[in-house]
């Protein structure tokens, strides 16, 4: 059996002076050619996890392997150098562009800093990537404020693709876009994945986008992965009460099917004072005394579907979906 392209084991990332565990003992992997979704509420740790995998944030414990070679355990600058094949498409692409620089200058500088000194090679790469994302070279003379939101997203992707990555992390890739532009951007991501043999990690709160784009989905809550499954299985048969609550609250594409969900009460607790035992128990309709005494570990439901819940067998003993 082949090995994952990227794998993390026992990953811990501490943030702030108090050393809060924004990522707490996470195991996760990405296969070549796969689109892996990471979902959860704000503060769940999904962006910190993505930044740690990228190398922008240093892990406190655990191991990260790329092409089966360890790339963790070094400070952020060296970590980024070791993980050049991983690139990050930020949520706010406009903020990543210098408003006083023409687009062409920004794209050339990106390649120059990455080590491409030859101007002709930079020009060739830039023109190739602009064509790939459906933009004319005329945009090179324009400033960021002269471009639409959709064009900015395309420029951001062209900038990243010019660095020839293998893995692209997409942070809320459709945030702030209207539905028609969203559809075009998602189609572009799919086309680029096929054309350049990319693997994606998609960080998003938009479950409809995740369901459309992702092969597998990992659900995070207060720094831990509580469920991971193939996308179709997760959306049709969620096993964790938190996952079921999120799906139950989300707009439904298919009105004939409804996930039986628990009520998602209040906001997540602070990382400064996480609950004993299961971190979700203070918001879970199904919590028992045992949930306060034991920290649930991920265990297999079936195949690639795993869940961290003491009561998942009880909760999945009946059909998780019902017809209206």
TrEMBL record:
Keywords: ATP-binding, Cell inner membrane, Cell membrane, Membrane, Nucleotide-binding, Transport. This is Oligopeptide/dipeptide ABC transporter ATP-binding protein. It comes from Caballeronia udeis. Residues 6-247 form the ABC transporter domain. SUPFAM superfamilies: P-loop containing nucleoside triphosphate hydrolases. It holds the Pfam family ABC_tran. Residues 251-272 are annotated as: Disordered. CDD domains: ABC_NikE_OppD_transporters (cd03257). Belongs to the ABC transporter superfamily.
